[in-house]
Amino acid sequence: MKKLILIFTFATLLASCADDDSKAGSKAKPITVIIGGNTPVTFAYDDKDRLQSITQDGTVTTITYNAKNLAERITTGDNYYEFTYNNSGKFLSYKDQAGNVSQMLYISDNQYTINGIPLNLDPDNEVLKYSYASFEYNNLKGAFANVKHLNGFVLAIANSSAMYYGSRKRRNSLSNVGGTSAYTYVEGDNGLPASQTLQGTTTVFQYSE
Known about the structure:
By secondary structure, the protein is mainly β. The termini are far apart. The protein has two helices and 16 strands. A hairpin with a 2-residue loop joins strand 13 and strand 14.
C-alpha cells in the first residue's frame, strides 16, 4: 500500500511539473501591435522563432540572418541595410543601398559609437542607450520575450517606433532630453504584457497564442 501511495505521489508531482513546463514553455509572440489606436503593425517569425518581417501601412520590412543568427540584412522595398560583424559577433558597420557606410566603433561592454552617436546594449542585446534615449529594465517579460536572437538596435533600424515597445525584458522607464517617463503595464497571459503605456500613449499587444 505504501508503494502505491509513493507511486501515486510521484506521478502527481510529474504531472504538476509537466503543467508548469507547458506554461513556462509558451512561445507566444506579438503578431499585431496597435499604438495609440492607429493602424496595426504586424510581425511574422521564421521557424527558429526569429523576427522575419514587420508590416506597417502596407510596407513590408524583412530581416535575414547569417549562420550565427546575427541580423545580416534589413530590406524595405528597394532600400536596405547590411550589417558586418567581427569574429566575436560585435557590430563593425552597416551600409545602405547607396553604399553609405556607418562605422560602429566598439568601445567595451557592448558600448559603441556610430558616427559620434552612442549605442549601449546589455548582454541580451537590449538597448540601454541610443542617441538621447536611455532605458531602464526589470526582470519581468517584455512583449518580445519569446523572440529568439532579437537585437534591439537592429529592431530600431527596421522600425523606429518599435524601439519603444519591442523588448524581451520589460522596461521601467525611458529617459531623454525631456526628462524621465515611466512605463506602466496591463498584465496578459503567460507573464506577457497585454498592453503598455508610455507618455500617455497605450500600445496593445496581440499574441500568436
